[in-house]
Amino acid sequence: MTSPENGKAEHAITMRDVAKAAGVSVATVSVVLNNKPGARIGDDARRRVQEVVAELGYRPNVLAKTLANGTSRFIGLVADAIATTPFAGQIIHGAQDEAWKNGYVLLVANTDGNKAAEDEAIAMMLEHQVHGILYSTWYHREISVPPSLHKTTTVLVDCFASGSGLPAVVPDETQGGRTATEGLLAAGHRRIAFINTTTPSPAQSGRLAGYRSALEDAGIAYDDSLVFPALPEQEGGYASTASILESKATAVFCHNDRVAMGLYDGLREHGLRIPEDIAVMGFDNQDVIAAHLRPPLSTVALPHYELGAAGVRMLLGIDSSSNTVATLVACPPVQRQSV
Amino acid sequence: MTSPENGKAEHAITMRDVAKAAGVSVATVSVVLNNKPGARIGDDARRRVQEVVAELGYRPNVLAKTLANGTSRFIGLVADAIATTPFAGQIIHGAQDEAWKNGYVLLVANTDGNKAAEDEAIAMMLEHQVHGILYSTWYHREISVPPSLHKTTTVLVDCFASGSGLPAVVPDETQGGRTATEGLLAAGHRRIAFINTTTPSPAQSGRLAGYRSALEDAGIAYDDSLVFPALPEQEGGYASTASILESKATAVFCHNDRVAMGLYDGLREHGLRIPEDIAVMGFDNQDVIAAHLRPPLSTVALPHYELGAAGVRMLLGIDSSSNTVATLVACPPVQRQSV
Fold first, then answer.
1. How many CB atoms lie within 10 A of CB A248?
2. What is the helix (H) or strand (E) element at residue B332, kind and residue range?
3. Structure confidence by residue, pLDDT tens digits, A5-44
4. Between residues 212 and 241 of chain A, which touch chain B (CB distance below 8 Å)?
5. Residues of A with CB below 8 A from B321's CB?
6. Is A67 in CB contact (< 8 Å) with chain B?
7. pTM of this prediction?
8. What is the ipTM score, two decimals?
9. Which of B337, B72, B334 is closest to B180 using CA atoms?
10. A318 in reach of chain B (CB within 8 A)
11. What is the edge-to-edge ordering of all strands in the sheet holding B251-254?
C-alpha cells in the first residue's frame, strides 16, 4: 500500500525556458505571448519566440494570464441537485459543450439546496475570478437570488427571480402542454384527461394553460372534471387509475413520465391496452424510463441540454437576453407508441 | 434586450487596500498572509494586518497563491458520461463533498467518451495545476490510460487499468452478486435463476461468481441451465420471461434494475404476482426506477457516491491505496417488497 504518486516530477516548460532557448528576455516572451499592445518587439525576436514555443510545447500558464487580465476563462455553474436527477446532468452537459466551444472551462458546484454549501460555492467561484455564474435548479421554479450573485455576471437557468434584473432561461411549459395535447388530438381523441401535479410550479400552471389552449383551438370546451391532481411520481399516476377510468377519457396527458409509468401499471391491472384502449402522453422524455416502457412512451422533451447551452451563450453575450422577461426554450414532441 | 451586466463594478478588496489600512507594505501583508518561513515581521504589524483583513473582509487571491505554491486547490474529475446516467452524478457528488471537506474544489469535465474532448479536458486541468485527477467511467470496466494522466497524480474511479501502476477504486461485484443471491436464499428459495448481461465486463463475471459462491455456501449445486444471457435493459428482462417460466425457478436475480423492470412487465402479462408467485431481485438501486416499481424492488446498491469520495481520499493520501490491486467498495443490500 502506497500513496499515489506517479512520476509527477516531470519538469514543466516555463516562460524562462522559452526565453533562454530563444535568446531573449522573459519580458519579451511575455509580450509576444500576450499580444500586449504598444510593445515594440522586432519581427525576428517575435518569430524566434513563436518557434521555440512550438518546439518545446510550451503552454502559457493560464493562472498567470488570469492574474494579469483580472478575469479567468472559468464559468461557474451552481446547481442544486446534479446527483439526484438525470436532468441537471443534461444542463451541465449543454453548458460545458458551449463553454468549451468558446474557450471557457466550466467550474461545477452541486449544493443540494444547502444554503451554506451554496454560499461557499459562490464565494469560491468569485475568488477564482469567474467570468460569470450560471445558477441552475433541477426543476423549473422561482427562486430568491443569493445576494453574492450580484457581484458577477449571472444567468439563471431553469429558474427565474421576478424583479431581480437577472436574465433567465426556462422551458416553455405552456407550449409543451399544448404540444402534448395536440399529439392526442391529432390521433383523433376528443375526451382527454390531464393528470396534473399537486406541486404549485410553473410546470403546473403552464402545462395546464397549454392543455386548455390546445383544446380551445380544437373547438373542445374545457371541462375541469377531466383534470386530476396527483403526486408527480409513479405512485401518483397509479393512484389516479380509478378516476381516469370513471372519467371515460380515451386519452390521458400525464404531468410527467413518472406519472405515466404509474398509470401504465394501473391500466394494466384493469386489463387495458395502451394505446388501443386508452392513449397515454407523458412529459419530460426522462432517460431510462420513457423509451423503455411497454409500449414506449410518447412524450414531450424538457430541453435541459439546450437550457445549459443557452445560459452560457447569454452569459457570454453571444445570445441576447432580457433583464425583465425569462427567455423561453421550446419543449419538442417525442413520438413513440403510446398514442 | 441587453447583455447581462449586473452591478459588476463593485470594488474587490485587494492586498494593496489591506496594506494601506494597516500602514504596512504590500510585501508585509503578503508575508503575513502566506505564513512565509524565515520572514521577520513584528508581532504588532502582524496583528494589525490580521485585524484589517478581518475588518475589510479581504479574501486572499487564490490564483496568486497557486502561482506561488506551484499547485492549486483544484482536483480534476474526468467523467465519460455524466449526462446520460444518474450514476456518474453520484460519483461527482461524492467526490465533491470529500474535496470540499478537505478544502479542495472539483473541476468537472464530461467527455462523452470522445478522445479529443478527453485530451483537451486533461490538458486544461494540467494547465490549471490541479492537485491530481480522478478519471471515472459510468460503468465498471477496464480502460487504457490516456498517457497525459501520468503527468499528475491520478486515481481511477469505477474503472481500472491492469499494469498501469495507477490506483483504482471499484465496486465489489462479487460480494454484490453474493449479497443479492443470499437475499433470495434467506427468503427460502432454492431454485434461483440468474439473468446475466451479454456484455463482457467485471459486472458480468463478478456477479456470476457471487451468485455461484452464495449457492455453494448454501449447499446448492450450480446449474448453468438457470443462467440466462440478456441485454442489460428493460427489453432484455422482458425477452427473458419465457425462459424464466420454463426454468421453474421460484426466484430470479436480475443483472440490473432495468432488467428487473422488463421482467416485471413480462411476468405480469402471465398473470404472475411478485413476490407471491415469483421473487425478483435487482442490482444497482437505480434512482427513479427501483423504489417506484410495483412492488418496490429489492436490490443491491452500486456505491457510486462512495466511489467518488474514496477516490478523493486516495488522491489526497487520506486513505491508503495500492498501485497493483484495485480497492473494492462494498455493494449494500436494499430490501423492499419484491422478495
1. 9
2. none
3. 443 334 567 777 888 889 888 778 777 776 655 567 788 8
4. 233-235, 238
5. 1-4
6. yes
7. 0.80
8. 0.77
9. B334
10. no
11. B227-230, B192-197, B251-254, B279-281
